[in-house]
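pinned: reference chain
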Amino acid sequence: MHVKELADITGVNIETIRSYRKAGYLNPSQRSNGYYDYDMESLITLLWIRKLRGYTMSMDQIHQYFYSADPEELLEILSDRRKYILDEIAARELSVRFIDLETRHIKETMSNNLSGAEMMQSIDDKIDIYSLQNRSERFQQLQFSMTPTLRIPQKILNGPITDETIPVQIGLGTYQYILDEHDFKRPDDAVIVPNGLNITQVIILNDFRELSIRDLEPMMTYAKVNKLRFLSDTTGYLMRIEMKHNKTYFHFRIRSCVQKNAIKDPVVLAHSRR
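pinned: its structure tokens
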């Protein structure tokens, strides 16, 4: 069969088939006009290569798989690919969980007054890091499951509402269950926002040099009216980055604990039982 027919049957593009032929995996006969005639042997070999590529094998691994006479070596290659795929599945599941969390934040703020404050139940202890230099390589790898956070000290939240400004602290945050899943020890200098009831509001920034205490008035007033005290610094979940009128606006959902509890989110519980 002609290379185009082989490509149509297998779904492998013509240039890839030619590269396999040049590498010696396919051995079609060559006609007098220079065209190659691919037989059933070529078809079966190509389908087998396509299957191995589906296992995420590199061409080097496929070469090793083809030319090895040692079954133990084949088992090792398959075991390596199995572990790689399971790791990829776990990473994708974590990404889906964070997409669900992003979705929850946006839906909750859509249904409420963005300029106001409200109570919310957190899903777990929040672990924030504000000194990001000289961290371990393992910490760097964990950053894909972390989000930018905004820190406001507890004493500011419990203080008077004034026109003063305070410096902005930006860090990275994750949840304790994420650290547990990765067997990652909580850093000694982490800022902990304990699981529990929180007062929350949305704050929009386009300047990270300083923050006006007036911008925190909704949640501070909410606490004072309801005779509540903040038990932690804030954590800020970066909900979105908005480009508007040649400026960049950063939407943070900030919160601070006012009552600790052990209520866990069903998703967190489900994963902690695995």
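why pinned: DSSP finds ten helices and twelve strands in the chain. The chain has two domains: 3-67, 115-272.
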